[in-house]
Structure formats: C-alpha cells, structure tokens
Amino acid sequence: MRSKGKGKKKSQPENERTDIIEKIDMNNDRLFAYYRAQKIVPAQEWEEFVESLRQHLPTTFRVAGSRQTANTLSALIEDIHVPALSDVVFEDLKIPPPVQITWYPDGLAWQFNVPKKVLRKSPEFKKFHSFLVFETEVGNISRQEAVSMIPPLFLEVEPHQKVMDMCAAPGSKTAQILEALHARDTVTSSSIPSGLLIANDSDSKRTHLLIHQSARLPSPALMVTNLDASNYPSIRVPVTRGGKSEFVPLRFDRILCDVPCSGDGTIRKNMGIWKSWQPMDGNGLHSLQVRILLRAMKMLNDDGRIVYSTCSLNPVENEAVVAEALNLSPAFELVDVSSQHAQLKRRPGLTSWRATGDKTCLRTFESYEEFLASSLDEGVKGKLSAGHWPPTNAQALHLHRCMRIYPHLQDTGGFFVAVLQKKVPLDQINGRDRKREASKSPEPADVKRPRLETHVLQAATFDNGNTETSSNDEQPIDVINNHPSKSRPPMLDGVFKENPYTYLGHNDAIVQSCIRELQITSAFPVHNILVRNPDGAAAKSLYISNDIVKTIIVNNSYERLRLTSAGTKVFAKQEVGKGSEAQFRVLGEGLPVVLPYLKAEAIIIANISSLHIFLESPYPLCTRFDNDFQQKIEVRSIGSHVVRFVAETNDDASLTHDLILPIWRSKISLALMIDKKSKSALSLRVFSRDITSTLSSSRDVIS
Ligand SMILES: C[S@@+](CC[C@H](N)C(=O)[O-])C[C@H]1O[C@@H](n2cnc3c(N)ncnc32)[C@H](O)[C@@H]1O
C-alpha cells in the first residue's frame, strides 16, 4: 500500500537497498497481463508505456506559491541557476539544466533529471542542490512529485473556503491547499484567512509528519486531526436562524480525497512494486476508498467540489470507486474539467475494465457474475464485490470525465484524478430522486442553508462534549443533540494523548505583556490566542487561530476530533538567564501574522550591512553595528523586537524586497531569532554564500 511507503527503504545506504533493481528485472507478468486486459493505453502505445515505467523519474519541486519569496526564488532559479547549469558537461555528457513544468501555473514548478553522481560531483549542480536543500528546509521550496501537484489545482481553493483534506499525510497537497488559503498574503505579512483547512490522517505518526511539514507555512486556519476518514464525525457549529441559536454540522466547500491506494503509479520511484505487484493490493482497498468518498459527499456543501485522487492506475481503485459512489449518491456528478489546465496531457477515464481475483492475472472477468461462476477459490470470491466491476450505467455516469495521467505522456508518475460536485440543488431534482435523497441527506430540501456564525455563540452553555450519535450519519440539521453524551474518542492506532486547547482571555497577563512589549495595536485578535493545556496556565508557547478554528474548538470535543494541532505558534517563552524573569518573544513563523498589527514605531529600520552582521555572528555586540542602528537599538528595552531590513542591491549582495525579522536585544548584544537553517538559506539568497556562524542562536538562552 502506498501509504505505508512500501518498497522504499529510506534509511539504508543505496548499495544495500533491495528495491534498487536492474532494468532487466523491471518486469512483472501479473502487472503486464492485468493492465493489457484493461486496455489502459491503445495497443500501439503499450511498449512506450511500459518502457516509460522503467525510466528514472525526474526530480521535481515547487516554489511555494504564497510565500514572500516565491517570485524572488523563481527569478533566482530562472536568471541565476539555470544559466549557471546550462553548460554543464559531466564525464563527456551534456547535462540539461532544470526546466519549468509547462502545465503548472505561474511557472512555479520545476523539474530536472540528473544522476545522483552529478549532484554530488558537479560543482554547479552541487551548488544548486544545496540551494534546494536549504530552501526546502525553510519551506520556500517543496519537493513534490509532479503528478502529486495536480489534485490541489483542480480543487481551486479560495481563502474564504472551508476545506477538508481527508487523507493528508505526509502533507504535500496540504501545503498547496494552505498556500491557496493564504493567496492574499502580501510580500511581508500574512493575512488571516477566514477559511479553514482540516488536514486529517488516520495514522497518528503520520499526522505528526503532517504537522512538521505544514509548520513551513504556519497558518491560523489549520487544524490537524487523526481520524478514520471513512467515519469522520460531524463537526458542529453554531448558527443563528430565525433569531435562535442552534448547532448544525459543518459543511465543507472543498474536500480532497487523496485516498490510500496500491500506488502502482509510483513504480518509477518505488521500484519494489516491480516485484510485489499483485491485483489483490487494489482489490483490498476498493471498499475503504468508496467509504472515504461517500463520507466526503456527506460533508460537502451544496455548491462544493470534491477531488478524488490516487497514484494508482488500477480502475478498481479509480473509476470503480467513483462509479460506486456516484450510484450510491445520485445527487453527484463528475465535472468536465477537460478545458482546465489544458497543457496537462491526460487520457479520459475508463468506462469498461475487467477485475480479477486471480493472482496470476491470466484470467480477468468482464462481470461480477462471470467472476462468481468461475472456478476461482470461494475465499477469493468473497473478497470482491459487484462494485469492483463497471456498472451498467458507466457511460451515463460520464466516467470519461475522470483524468488518467500516464508516465509516457509527459515524463511523470502515473496518477488518477476525478472532480465531483452536486448536480443541482435538491429542490430541483425529480420527485423520485428527491425522496431517495431526503432519506439519505440530513437536510430537508426546502430548508435554506443557515449562516455560520463567525463568532462563538454565547450558547457555549454547551461544553466540549460529543454531540453526536455513535453513527456518523449526520442528523437533521436542526435536531443536533444539545445534550452531549460523553463518549470515548475512537481508538485508532493508540490512546489519544494530545493536550487540550484553551483560549486565553483578553486580560491574560502573558497576552497583555506580549501586546505591550511588542507594541501590538488593539485590533489584534487577542481573543483567538490559545495554549495547549487544560486550564490556560502559564505556557511555553502561545498559538493563534482564526475565528472558525476557534468556533470548532470551543464547540466540539478535541478528543472526539482527535485534534492534534490547531492554529500556529506566535509567541514563545524566552529564558533570559538566572535570576531574571522569563519573557515572551514573537516567533519568526508567527511574525507574518502579527506584523499587520504592529505599530509603525515598533519596527526598527536596518540596512543590508546590519543583516550581514546578524547572519555572520549569532550574538553580535551592539557596538558592531553602524551608529544609526546602534542609536535605534539603545533606546529599546531588553527583549523581543522586530527589524525591517530595507531592500538594496550592491556589488556583494541583493535583497530584492524588504525583509522583516524578529530579533532579541540583551544587555550588550543582539540576536536574529530565526533558526540556523533559515539563516543559511537567507545568506545564500542575499549574499550568494553561507556566511553564517556554525553556532546557533534562537534556541539558546540569551544572557
Ligand atoms: C496517498 S497517502 C496521502 C498523501 C497526501 N495526500 C500527500 O499529498 O502528502 C494516503 C494517506 O491515507 C492515510 N489513510 C489510510 N487509511 C485512512 C483512513 N481510513 N482515513 C484517513 N486516512 C487514511 C494514510 O496514512 C496515508 O497517509
């Protein structure tokens, strides 16, 4: 299963890896027989298709779209790195430079295909490689398979939308969605989007990976949950209707179902699949995939959109899942997206395919009936259902509107994407369908959708308890149980050990000291500051969420949601040495959120020479800076401050836009409060070399 990273043994050195196989061994009779039977490509393309599976997959990466640095970085790659890499000859071979992926918007995705040896030994590529490594570490670049970038493009997320990423870990698509939510961020500061992203994964270890990844784009709009997506509980939110407050299930505008799959589309990367592939991998996942998609359909807004995707080529995990879900939820249809992202080469979804339980794949079956009548083992017969086969209405379902991406089309992995939406409002579908819908849907057809309250209702007479029945079928919209029954959180892969979330009051002493010391204006949403402990006691870190995240947290049990992370860290405790009381400082990752609320006089203006000094030394003495900066800093108190380094280009350096960073002032020295890797990345970008000291600063005690 792709989700378990099958076939890839990351920790082993290359010469010990068992999944690196010779081209001659890149054969699997079962796989070939199965896919020939599916006619996934025309017969005359078969050899080209199979040969493409045996080719080394190019390295692809994305410049993070909404980041301050996106344009700078793109220009840097285009204007500096590409020319520097254009004439590289290695062992008499001309090595091609990176190229932009044509179908990705704004030229923000790139690919190159060079042997590892070249990356290690060619000085030009070595330099480019370390640039990529640093920028990846700080979140400005995301290494991501080209095909994996496709689903979020078709999701078309806007900053105000409520989005659910049902199977999100390790989080490459989550990052893209976050970037779309933050599309209005400016060069130097982050807007707080009114929308929401819930990134969920049933594997708790992988949710932590997800949190780590998404920390690269800190967002007050993000929540991470650790639940089985096929059984995702209703989240209740307060609404006001007819002057009365009540609770309704939260509906999403966009849902991504990037479901667990057999992953055979990744065979160019996960070469273990050449040996292990067999048809039961996909057969076994079909039912879970259907249930996840059905659950998404239940949680979608009437005018919402679902993207279902897999990195498998198997119709049983793709068209069969979509067809079964559409037949079970006839209010939905496939969206024709053939004219969107037209440069992306694709093939239409299949309308006929042949499933099998025969491990050799020598026999495949046209229909479930034929399969049942076969001489195959009865045990195997029990493992497949009619849903594994094309339904009789396959054409009517417009399955050709699904997208199949094949490796030979544009030198990528294999992928499948389907875009679904509700056909028409419920009150417009014919009587028969309406009746059937009404029995399934929680909402009466003629009820106008109520407005979600953006503030937390006083009706927080509700505690954080579970308000649902044990089933996740949503209840009628106005009959949500107001009397919570304390049910235990579902046991997935272990006890849920996360800390609860507590919002601090406006008058909280720590919040007030942060506001005072940092000169934050009264417009700052202090009511959305939270800590991770039960009683809001003095904490090491303060987080901020947006309104809708707060609404969800205050009105739902965090244990029931297995809420693993919410919002983003903005302030952290800073030890200042023995005998002195700890203070709080603004974090680099939180600064973009705080920045719009800083009083103008709070920001200290500095030049590029000061930046050089800050990067060169972890704790430069105040006296090392020029007179102008010294004077500005001398009048400041000991503690957390914010500096604006003004854009400037000279012979040695190029700072293309103003940079705003946190610093710490102690008695006689200063420190730039970003971590060592961010400093190195910044140094490479501005001074074209790493001038940073090997000592780190931001985590150390400052005396
Ligand atoms: C294909 S991967 C998702 C990749 C991810 N969307 C990305 O772009 O980085 C599928 C994920 O589904 C998770 N998963 C498996 N079964 C699940 C379930 N029942 N509910 C939620 N997540 C599940 C796996 O742990 C795995 O992380």
TrEMBL record:
Residues 49-423 form the SAM-dependent MTase RsmB/NOP-type domain. Its main location: nucleus. The keyword tRNA processing applies. InterPro entries: MeTrfase_RsmB-F_NOP2_cat, MeTrfase_RsmB-F_NOP2_dom, Pre-PUA_NSUN2, PUA_NSUN2, RCMT, RCMT_NCL1, RsmB/NOL1/NOP2-like_CS, SAM-dependent_MTases_sf. S-adenosyl-L-methionine binds at residues 167-173, 201, 228, 258. It comes from the Eukaryota. It is found in: Nucleus. Residues 463-474 have a biased composition (Polar residues). The active site is at 311 (nucleophile). GO terms for molecular function: tRNA (cytidine-5-)-methyltransferase activity; tRNA binding. Keywords: Methyltransferase, Nucleus, RNA-binding, S-adenosyl-L-methionine, Transferase, tRNA processing, tRNA-binding. PANTHER family: NCL1 YEAST -RELATED NOL1/NOP2/FMU SUN DOMAIN-CONTAINING, RNA CYTOSINE-C(5)-METHYLTRANSFERASE NSUN2-RELATED. Belongs to the class I-like SAM-binding methyltransferase superfamily. RsmB/NOP family. This is S-adenosyl-L-methionine-dependent methyltransferase. It comes from Crepidotus variabilis.
